[in-house]
Amino acid sequence: MKRVDAILGNGTHSSLLIALDRREADIGARKINDAVKKAKEAKRPLLLHSARWLDQYFPTDQNEKYPIIRDIRRLFKPKYLSLLSREQQPWGKIALGALDSKPFALTELPEMVLRFFREKDGTLGRLFFVAATDEAVLSNIQDLVRIGKEISTNLKIAKGEEAQTGEYLFASESMIFTDILANVSTEGPLVTVICFIAVGVLILGGFRRIKEFLLVYVFLTLGMLAFIATLYFFQIKLNFFNFITIPITIGIGVDYAINIFYRYKVENKTNIKSAIASTGAVVFLCSWTTIIGYGSMLSAKNQAMVSFGAMAVIGEICCLLFAMVFMTAYLGVREDKRIFAETSTSRIQVDPVVPEKRSSKKSAPAISKSNAKNKSRSSNKKNVSKSGY
User: Fold this and answer.
1) Helices (H), the chain
2) Between vectors from CA 91 to CA 85 and to CA 97, what angle results, nearest 5°?
3) Residues of the chain predicted below pLDDT 70
4) Rounded to whole angstroms, how far apart are CA atoms 304 and 239?
5) Separation CA 53–CA 55 (nearest Å)
6) What residues pair up with 127 in beta bridges, in sequence order?
7) Which of 34, 73, 176, 235 could cysteine-pair with 99, CB 3.0–4.6 Å?
8) Strands 167-170 and 10-18
9) What is the pLDDT of residues 128-149, one digit of tens each?
10) How far apart are CA 21 and CA 168, in angstroms?
11) What is the pLDDT of residues 12-54, one digit of tens each?
């Protein structure tokens, strides 16, 4: 098998290309072979091994070679077979019969060759294959992307559904992965931002107060940042399959913060403990059932499903943690500060009563002075009466 791969390349996973016609397929395949040859000479080998096309098995210059064959036929007459040995005579008869034959048609090639280059409608010659080297790990998406880039560098890939002159349709998994990753890298962030903004608009429409909206939105943002940081810590890489867990987590994770804060709001924002006691268990149960659903994917043999399940579970845990722990802790601290401020205000309102008591005490001397005056007047009257005036 190694000898076959060395000759034909890693032909079991060849990239398929479709040309406009048989001539264009011949040109494109030769371009690939020339590029592979030049890369080897420059000691920068590609992951491409070679191209395989129909005209490689069918001589296109028969009309030029057939006059030479006729000259050989005139020289090689049947009588000369007797000059050959007994072992050579059978081969001589085969050669003589081949020299008598006419140029063969394309359809006379063996079926085991034709079936690889025949389309569904019976067209022959438009298809050609590009085989990778045995160094390419075709289960590695990076190698698949590299193969797709090497082919698209040497050939012009058609953007539409039909190939024009000099263009080729790429119908292989390597190009499919390349296109999908390109779309994910360009459109994925845009879709995520749109999802994040749309969720924010719905939160604002539900609470209708900027402060309440910002509270829920900020803790959702913190949960998503913790989600992304966890992915980076565990080196879980994004791909076109598990990328959709990000907008899904945004849509599901925001529910936990909304439910808890809305319950807190219904209770007039006075008792976060009561809100958690009545709503926290339900929120946790909803999240736990979702985690179980995603967690079942971790036992799958397909690594794409495993990465999807792992990312979804991590996103659920992060959003739940920031909703039930950090947001409630923040509301509890804010509630304690409000209670402390109200207590301090009530004490300040009681203190003005004290000056009134002090003023009443100070008024006592004034009263005593008036009494003293009255007493002095009465004493003066007594003295006047005693003196006889």
Assistant:
1) 2-8, 22-41, 62-75, 89-100, 111-117, 141-154, 173-207, 210-233, 245-266, 272-275, 281-295, 303-321, 327-350, 353-387
2) 125
3) 1-13, 100-101, 173-174, 346-389
4) 8
5) 6
6) 18
7) 73
8) antiparallel
9) 999 988 888 877 778 888 888 8
10) 10
11) 567 889 999 999 999 999 999 999 999 999 999 999 999 999 9
Q: Is 41 in contact with 59 (CB distance < 8 Å)? A: no
Rg (CA), the chain: 46
This prediction has a pTM of 0.60
- Matching residue, tokens 């001397």: 365
- Alpha-carbon distance of 140 to 136, in angstroms, equals 8
Q: How far apart are CA 242 and CA 314, in angstroms?
A: 12
- Nearest Cα to 219, choosing from 202, 243, 203? 203
Domain boundaries, the chain: 2-177, 186-348
Report residue 202: phi and psi, to 5°.
-65, -40
Q: CA 117, 122, 125, 129: dihedral to nearest 10 degrees?
A: -30
| CA dihedral over 166, 169, 175, 179, signed as positive or negative | positive
Pairing of β 48-53 and β 127-132:
antiparallel
Helix (H) or strand (E) holding 130: strand 127-132
Which residue bears the tokens 């008598």? 100
